């Protein structure tokens, strides 16, 4: 089985370790991974800010890049939601592109869902025993990509102790450009969110989305808090490395 | 009261603007509305009684079951002496007159100062513990006094509003009021307080016969 | 209510500094949302009800002219009078003219957001007619000269201490009065007014076309007083409040209280069909229904925005909104706040003065999930954003930046080069692994509130090329 990795612009440019972990994880599970180098961004920041034309321009390029890949896997729920829910809408008036968008939507998978549902693996040979972690539900992952049980099941199966935070499914306040267009509200939302997270007493916060993690990590550091922030792909790969000695 | 000529002009202009918004012409056909959702399940009387009781108590209404009218009268007498209530407002219903026979109650001279209101019901709804009151027999007795005692016959129990409307509509009184528990508010800091404008005490006498 | 939607940024700044407001909002929204959650979880057919009620509302809006005619005929057949007002000014004229013609000196009012839209109380007072709010929350706001901040609990932004002080100042209650004492004082005072008022003005939750019935939902009893004691009852409604049949009511009355406060049923539901019948011992002598447009027909005409008229004013979207929770209702600057406000205010007032409202969302989707009539709120927020861009209401710098981004993102060679330059430049701003640069656009806004990590030396695509690519 071969998958094309969609690294996402955030991971590619700012958090490469997330995409690296995703590749290593998939290979460990016996999957061949390719990286179409022409990829850039899914267009979500433009789309969510109301820039339909610009979003379409970016999306057309993205469609072309991933046209011939059987599976497209990405370490993100929100970029996946963009492709699955919004690409078809973007091309509603252009039949050929609409068909391509529908097709790509059917082949695009968030990483943890791909592992548990397509590969059918929950035990991935990772050892995270002793890890106390809380999981943040990224809004788009949860509400548009159905990412809910998969990451939790993978973490638990590796022996991690998962502590549910109050408000685990409440928005962290990132929202793409919203975080810089309305920074005070965005930050107030992050602070409320972190109240629930620090109350769990765990040392590690994780999620499927780099945007959310960037928002929460940046706020935690500003607060001087000790909670570490790691993407779920990174945690799972570390667990695999640990299990392998 | 029919509208004057100015009123008709305004109405026509108003409707014309709506039609324009909808791209419709006067007299255009109308599709049927969606089919009404059927209420779930069929209930038997015992189930109705226990559901009614449970729901009433959940909202702070007290239910007393009595076998027949004479017993209701005696119970009403003791409830009223507990409430220290002597002046009353009552709706114009036979059952009220029957149950109140011989009780030491005085009609309130000033309705707003009555200490208790006594009414029957048009029917009662088991799914939410609701009393349905009809303005045919008055409005104030269940509204003004701080305590309301409602007399309900078992046979007046229905599963819910859908059944009640099926039985009584389309001939509705000017006010059909569904009462579920005492009056309440949480407007000040979300703290629940009973008896804001309507009665703070609601007692239901459920009569079998 | 005065429109201050254009001052959104200022309003928000003030709200976020207000610690008491923050506390009140968190408490209130958590309580309402929690109660709704329990009520919905315990109700087997909630999804079926949502679909049904959404369909009934959509149908009614599609044939609204027909249902308005039917409603009018039904009310008139009972001897009631129906008035039509194209806008707020006309509505106010109708009410004041009616009041003057009937010798009305005092009006008691139950909660009506429409009356806030059209500044009705002020208009009545200008004609020397006393207009008193009777819903406890609204009454508190009235004597304080304040305005509502939430659809269901209009005074939730006030603490108990604030109300105690207010009542002491205005009503002479003790300085240490507890909530039951305050409530009893309001009850006594408002009862006097109920008994001496000439006209009761109510809103409308649902108007049933086939029977001419207006349906009113409450917990306190002030609506029953308002619609029973004075000799004239005037019900005022936006044109979108219609539903076709009485048989539709049980479903809507199951959805509304559960979504609003988590109750299975509100304490009182009044089905008012005309004025007192011959033979009835009590009740108003006259029934008037005022149907108001005030911008709604424009929303109706808009195929995308029309769905927002399905709203049954339950407040569930407010309680689920993490933005509303932080800024409260006043920040939105008009009668309707929260997600429905951000969608409806631009529809009713125009996009230019309200353009910030649909931007105040992370598009998390929580509101769309809880709306009992399935209004696609996140989609409508996005639609307003699209229109803002199309109408040139977005900032030039933003438009340029997004355009540049799109240009680069569809040209991988240029993307590669520019991101390298960008990352290199960012590392120049780095202090101890984090970026400084509060003077920069975008990054500056981020840094005001949070830290930003320095980009890695190598992007992922470089790591791939050098280490991960397999032959």
Total helical segments of chain B: 5
Report the sheet with the most strands of chain C, covering strand number, pairing sense and barrel closure.
Answer: 6 strands, parallel
Average pLDDT of chain B, rounded to a whole number, is: 92
Instruction: Count up the helices of chain C.
Output: 22
**CATH fold annotation of chain B:** Rossmann fold
Give the amount of beta strand of chain B, in percent.
Answer: 15-25%
Q: Using a beta-carbon cutoff below 8 angstroms, give the protein chain pair with the largest interface and the number of residues from each chain.
A: B-C, 72 and 102 residues
Distance between the ends of chain C: 69 Å
How many strands in all of chain B? 12
> Which structural class is indicated by helix and strand composition of chain B?
alpha/beta
Q: Please list the strands of the largest sheet of chain C in the order they lie side by side.
A: 1-10-7-4-2-3
**Structurally, how many domains make up the residues of chain C?**
3
Unreliable stretches of chain C (pLDDT < 50, length at least 5) are: none
Radius of gyration of chain C, CA atoms, in whole angstroms: 26 Å
- Outline type of chain C: elongated
Percentage of β-strand residues of chain C: 5-15%
The CATH architecture term of the largest domain in chain C is 3-Layer(aba) Sandwich
What are the secondary-structure elements of chain B, in order, as H or E? HHEHEHEEEEEEHEEEE
Q: Give the fraction of residues assigned to helices of chain C.
A: 40-55%
Considering the protein shown, what is the CATH homologous superfamily of chain B? NagB/RpiA/CoA transferase-like
Could you give me the name of the CATH homologous superfamily of the largest domain in chain C? Answer: NagB/RpiA/CoA transferase-like
Task: Give a short overview.
The complex is a heterotrimer of chains A (245), B (209) and C (471). By secondary structure, chain A is of the alpha/beta class.
Can you put this structure into words, describing what you see?
- The complex is a heterotrimer of chains A (245), B (209) and C (471).
- Chain A is of the alpha/beta class and 245 residues long.
- Chain A contains 13 helices and eight strands.
- Chain A has helices at 9-13, 16-28, 44-48, 52-65, 78-90, 95-107, 111-118, 139-145, 149-157, 178-181, 183-199, 210-223, 232-243, and strands at 2-5, 32-34, 71-74, 108-110, 132-135, 161-162, 204-207, 228-231.
- The model of chain A has no long low-confidence stretch (mean pLDDT 95).
- In chain B, strands 1-12-7-4-2-3 form a six-stranded parallel β-sheet.
- The N and C termini of chain B lie far apart (46 Å).
- With 471 residues, chain C is of the alpha/beta class.
- Chain C has three domains: 1-42 and 315-394, no CATH class; 44-133 and 199-297, Rossmann fold (3-Layer(aba) Sandwich); 397-468, no CATH class.
- In chain C, strand 11 and strand 12 form a beta hairpin.
- The interface between B and C is large, with 72 and 102 residues.
